[in-house]
Amino acid sequence: MTTIREILVDSERRLHRAGIESAAVDSAELLAHVLGVSRNRLLLHDRVDEEDRISFERLMAKRLNRIPLQHLVGTAPFRHIEVQVGPGVFIPRPESELVAEAAIRHLRTCERPRAFDLCSGSGAIAISLATEVPGTQVSAVELSPEALVWLRENVRTLSAAHPAATPVEIIAADATDVSILEFRSAAGTCDVVTCNPPYIPDGSIPRDPEVRDHEPAIALYGGVDGLDVVRGIVITAAMLLKSGGLMVIEHADVQGPLSPGGGVVEAVRQARVPAGLDEFIAGVAGTQLFTDIEDRQDYNQLPRFTLARRV
User: Fold this and answer.
1) If residue 95 lies in a helix (H) or strand (E), which one and from where to where?
2) Tens digits of residue pLDDT in 236-273
3) Rounded to whole angstroms, how far apart are CA atoms 35 and 157?
4) Is 131 strand, coil or helix?
5) What are phi and psi of 194, to 5 degrees?
6) Maximum distance among all Cα pairs of the chain, rounded to whole angstroms
7) What is the value of pTM for the model shown?
8) Considering just the CA atoms, what is the radius of gyration of the chain in Å?
9) Bridge partners of 142?
10) Three-state DSSP state, 141
11) Are 243 and 281 in contact (CB under 8 A)?
12) Tell me: the pLDDT tens digits for 21-32?
């Protein structure tokens, strides 16, 4: 048998040599997963038997080939929950927790709150809204058939674990298509719309192999400037929100207000009531849709998400 410390020291060294910045965390998470314990209880164990050591080495080989840690352990932490993830669904990042936090703060001030999470992916944001603000009616919208498999499973599992939460409604649809019946039925009724859309420009190649080779393209790329989906989301959000309702939309750190063209802030500022949709979008055609538009930073003090209030 081999000791826990020996395995961790060796695996951290190998992962670091492979260019994986989170080597210490990853090696501990993989070993904890094999042993069936939480990472913070790992050192309470002493030795690893041969069968577990072989299982660990198989996972290490995959991680050294840059398969995402979350795909190997099958889950990703997000605020107070863990969501199941794997090939075909975007892995939620800590930065998106700030999007959920802003939405949750607003929902807690609302009576009988209603929220939509667009481009929902694994459902991490949608489920957080539903479980952290009990009684909130949340709809999660996702287009990808592969991501919908994970979304449905996460909603099922976490709804069972949080019986006080209103079950999340799942809508299989393009979040930018304002003709969707569910959108039109909910027009003007929502307190919050959240979204972590695809926002990487089509010509860009992500630096990290975990993203480049394993994240679904539909969750990454958003047109020539990365903002095509964002512009569509802004119109959908405007239709769904009641006056004073809050839109929270994530973006890349290079799409803040100081970026060329003003980034997402400017895209929201330029959004107007579309002609022909005034039946579903309150306001006169051509008038501004949002006010109180501001950008917020992430944990690294980089521009990360935009807030705006519906006129």
Assistant:
1) helix 94-107
2) 999 999 999 999 999 999 999 999 999 999 999 999 99
3) 23
4) helix
5) -110, 155
6) 74
7) 0.95
8) 21
9) 172
10) strand
11) no
12) 999 999 999 999
